[in-house]
């Protein structure tokens, strides 16, 4: 065994030998509860682990568990001077985390399930170790939030920001360019600021790094805030500069050479360079002494506020029994709600619309929204006397949940792995979600999405999830309808005009969707 490893093992063994009986019992209970939570929610942890490993946006998360261990080890010399105590009010944050998991399980909202799966092990720390130990572990417990794979929801916004920065720099460098959403047309060719070029993965990693560095390297809150601002702004601006560099190089060396070089820089050097610049800029302002203790055990032990929060002692057995009961209730409730499914009609039809006629569906580039798990799907085309054409897609779901999510990732108007790419947000259509798509670099399509569940009519996936949660909490289930109206810009007029005329002909949209799907 290498000397360094022997030193670490010796240190760990010595720490274990000098544990007080109170710490020994508390850590055994904590390890037992964590093992149970991992077993009960293993599917959520497995799903997160796959995302950490398979999705480049979240690859940095594989380092977070080691960072958490190091943060606790930093604090251990002071923590072991405190006495761990069972604190029964800790059941409240644990119950809140369990309820969040329940809501996520009922609605198919993975981020809620995963956030709850991460929160529950953190929530049992105040319950089993007490408020004073928890105060000493406050930062590591808060840093656990970076275990949750979240951030891809920012892609479209960051695409737009990057595109605006890129076209501004392109104009400043004397290159003529026309921007249309996330597409930039230059003399060398048409460039797309795609999802992979949005910079979201570096922004998320920089935020995680910034929070860690702000705690470890700084004492002043002003300097901590300044570092976080840098970690937010610098990656976004640098990503815009990188995209501009690709376009600028393409004007002289060709698109293929510039794109190949960009992939090498983007994949290997970009984050390292940006991170080095931020560290170099912040280095001279570090104000925490390396030898200074991270927490003050004496101050925590003497804190009157923490003293007021402490309660009378409760046996560890009673607390563990309460935890087990909460887990049984939550899992049982989720299972019962998951078995609910609304009855669906045998078939649904695209109805007649005044002033419009059904015609063959023959798009220039095939477009068919994705609706996995739907009980019924319909796709058809209508044309009016002026030659305007509107494509109508309808999907009817008996329930919402895992594998049956109308607003889930990869579902809806934008077909994954197809010639179609997201271009920009579309014009407003009431509560509908409007987005512009570009097919093959030439076909421009507008798609507007609505969801119908009971009285709800909205294009917001969040509002749909809330409606489904409310239904399942009361063991009441309603079918969900997804409607997408879409059209392409043609010589007969823009897509927006065609969709607005079609909407005016259907009458009130909610009742029209209900009649079409025979829900009411």
From TrEMBL:
Q: How does it sit in the membrane?
A: Multi-pass membrane protein
Q: Top enzyme class of this protein?
A: hydrolase
* InterPro entries to which the protein is assigned, alphabetical: EpsH-like, Exo/Archaeosortase_dom, Exosortase, Exosortase-1, Methanolan_biosynth_EpsI
Q: Could you give a GO molecular-function term held by this entry?
A: hydrolase activity
The protein's UniProt keywords, in alphabetical order, are:
Cell membrane, Hydrolase, Membrane, Protease, Transmembrane, Transmembrane helix
Enumerate the spans annotated as Methanolan biosynthesis EpsI domain: 322-509
Ranges annotated as spanning the membrane: 21-43, 55-73, 85-103, 123-148, 160-179, 199-218, 225-245, 265-286, 319-336
Quote the subcellular location field of this record.
Answer: Cell membrane
State its Enzyme Commission number(s): 3.4.22.-
Protein name (database record): Exosortase A
Per the record, the gene is xrtA
């Amino acid at each position: 065994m290498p000397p360094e490893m022997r030193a670490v093992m010796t240190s760990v063994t010595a720490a274990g030998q000098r544990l007080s009986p109170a710490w020994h019992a508390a850590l055994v209970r904590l390890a037992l509860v964590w093992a149970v939570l991992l077993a009960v929610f293993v599917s959520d942890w497995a799903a997160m682990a796959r995302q950490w490993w398979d999705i480049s946006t979240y690859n940095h998360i594989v380092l977070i568990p080691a960072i958490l261990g190091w943060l606790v080890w930093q604090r251990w010399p002071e923590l072991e001077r405190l006495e761990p105590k069972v604190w029964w009010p800790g059941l409240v944050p644990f119950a809140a985390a369990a309820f969040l998991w329940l809501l996520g399980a009922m609605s198919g909202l993975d981020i809620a399930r995963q956030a709850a799966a991460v929160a529950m092990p953190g929530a049992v720390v105040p319950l089993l170790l007490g408020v004073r130990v928890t105060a000493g572990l406050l930062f590591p417990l808060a840093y656990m939030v970076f275990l949750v794979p979240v951030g891809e929801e920012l892609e479209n916004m960051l695409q737009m920001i990057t595109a605006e920065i890129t076209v501004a720099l392109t104009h400043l460098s004397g290159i003529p360019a026309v921007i249309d959403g996330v597409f930039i047309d230059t003399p060398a060719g048409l460039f797309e600021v795609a999802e992979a070029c949005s910079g979201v993965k570096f922004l998320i990693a920089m935020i995680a790094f910034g929070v860690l560095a702000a705690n470890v390297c700084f004492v002043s809150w002003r300097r901590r805030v300044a570092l976080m601002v840098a970690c937010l702004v610098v990656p976004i601006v640098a990503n815009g500069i990188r995209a501009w560099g690709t376009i600028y190089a393409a004007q002289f060396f060709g698109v293929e050479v510039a794109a190949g070089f960009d992939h090498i820089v983007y994949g290997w050097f970009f984050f390292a360079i940006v991170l080095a610049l931020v560290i170099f800029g912040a280095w001279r302002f570090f104000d925490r002494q390396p030898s200074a203790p991270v927490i003050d055990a004496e101050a925590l032990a003497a804190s009157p506020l923490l003293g007021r929060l402490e309660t009378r002692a409760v046996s560890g057995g009673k607390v563990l029994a309460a935890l087990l009961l909460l887990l049984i209730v939550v899992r049982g409730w989720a299972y019962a709600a998951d078995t609910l499914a609304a009855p669906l009609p045998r078939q649904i039809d695209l109805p007649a619309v005044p002033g419009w006629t059904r015609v063959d569906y023959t798009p220039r580039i095939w477009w068919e929204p994705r609706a996995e798990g739907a009980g019924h799907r319909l796709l058809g085309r209508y044309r009016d006397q002026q030659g305007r054409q509107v494509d109508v897609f309808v999907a009817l779901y008996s329930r919402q949940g895992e594998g049956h999510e109308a607003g889930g990732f990869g579902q809806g108007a934008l077909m994954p792995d197809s010639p179609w790419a997201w271009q920009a947000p579309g014009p407003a259509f009431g509560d509908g979600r409007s987005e512009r798509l570009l097919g093959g670099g030439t076909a421009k399509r507008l798609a507007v999405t609505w969801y119908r569940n009971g009285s709800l009519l909205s294009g917001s996936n969040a509002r749909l999830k809330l409606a489904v949660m409310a239904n399942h909490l009361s063991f009441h289930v309603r079918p969900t309808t997804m409607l997408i109206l879409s059209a392409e810009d043609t010589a007969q007029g823009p897509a927006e005009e065609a969709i607005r005329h079609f909407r005016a002909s259907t009458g009130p949209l909610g009742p029209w969707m209900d009649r079409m799907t025979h829900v009411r």
